[in-house]
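Convert to structure. Protein one:
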Amino acid sequence: MKTKKLFCAFAVVATAFAMASCQSELVEEMIVDLNINVTATTTPEFEATIEDNCGNKVSTRTAVSSSPNSNGNYTLSWQAGDEISITDGYTSAIYATDNAGSNATFTRKSGNISCNASSFKAFYPSSLNPQNLELPLVQEYIPGNVKNFPMYAETCNKTLSFKNLCGIFRLCLKNETGSTVKVKNVSVLADGRGLAGSFSIDNTGAAVVCGNNGVTLLCACPVELSACNGTDFNVILPKGDYCSLKLKITTEDGKVINMKSNSTISIRRSGITKVCVSLKPITFDGGLEDITFCESDVDFSER
């Protein structure tokens, strides 16, 4: 089979974010207050709010905001239909919300947990639980955002403070080829490091993935790249310093772009690492090209 040719090369530029915060760490934690009535006939309800590092309540979202808030942090907020799983150590239940924004109330959808439990653990999305800690091999492309950004919380006092388990690798692609380029999927692989699959949670609240699986961001509808503005492709990755990060970009017409970093790429828990790549009108034969990834890290709020 002949190797297909793609007429493009890559120039990498860095985009920096000037950010400020009321504390040195730009972290906002999602707070879920467990308003539990211990009577047997009442279904426990979970009230979800968020506090920033200054102690102020702010709107939070299960998708990352498009720009930083007044404290310099990217924020998140609940959306109608969001679900979390909660366990009391013995049984688990799924809770859902019908409203959005701050102070969203989660009510039981399925399963049962004890109102008198001494501790609770909670996970988002609801597919996560102590028996199923898996980061998906395939993620869904969301324009300018992510879907189902994983988080975890544990409490002994009926207040859940969620922490993000991963970070975001934000690949910004710009089309300077002079022809139409539509991206079908973006695959990321790290030599000797797992990016998806079974994971444990370390003492910093970060996911530690077993194995060496890569991850693919799948575009349900191919995304056409702009010649004027970069298009962001956000991939959820576990934290780590990746010495050799490989990218495979597949276009709608089946052409393949392969790239490999020749410098370390750092992904932080609860942070965004942004890399900008411009596609140029030079013949590219599908081989593996060394690229120096210039990066800028951006913090966003806890969930």
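Protein two, convert as well:
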Amino acid sequence: MRKIACFAFILVFVSSLAFAQSAQETRGLEEEKRDLLSHTEVRIPSRVSAPLPEETSPELRFLNELYAKRVAHVSDAERVLAILTRSGDQAQDVEAHEPLRKGAAALMFCERLGIKGGIGRRLFPASERYALRELVYEDIMEAEGVEEVVTGRELVDMFVRTVDYMEKRGGRLK
């Protein structure tokens, strides 16, 4: 009985060593393939911003700076909405340097632009989830989680898509 147990242990041990060796070889082969194909990968060039002319509007300067930000803040969204609605007022009751989440951005855009939405949005008007769903449906935002943080590039993209949305609706808000 002892011989059988020892034989089974040796068999399991040797097979696990062989499996580990084959896993290392597989990984090595995958890394070689990745190196061989690396020249075919699409690479996004780093953004080199040319200096803006002196007569550039402050709004355009703001959007240009926002585009380069890794994390957009609530105050950035407030300013984008002020540009969209052509109003100079920005809400002062929120923390200005708080990172902007996708759900909060969607809710802000729906409320300020008067987007009523579907039945879920109408039943739960304060729901970030349904606001995000509505903006995805209207092609203003990309579908992601409500807790994801918005980058400056995404906020500028939302700005452009909102302008397109408003043009489709005849430039009307609410």
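The first helix runs from residue 2 to 37. Residues 2-40 form one domain.
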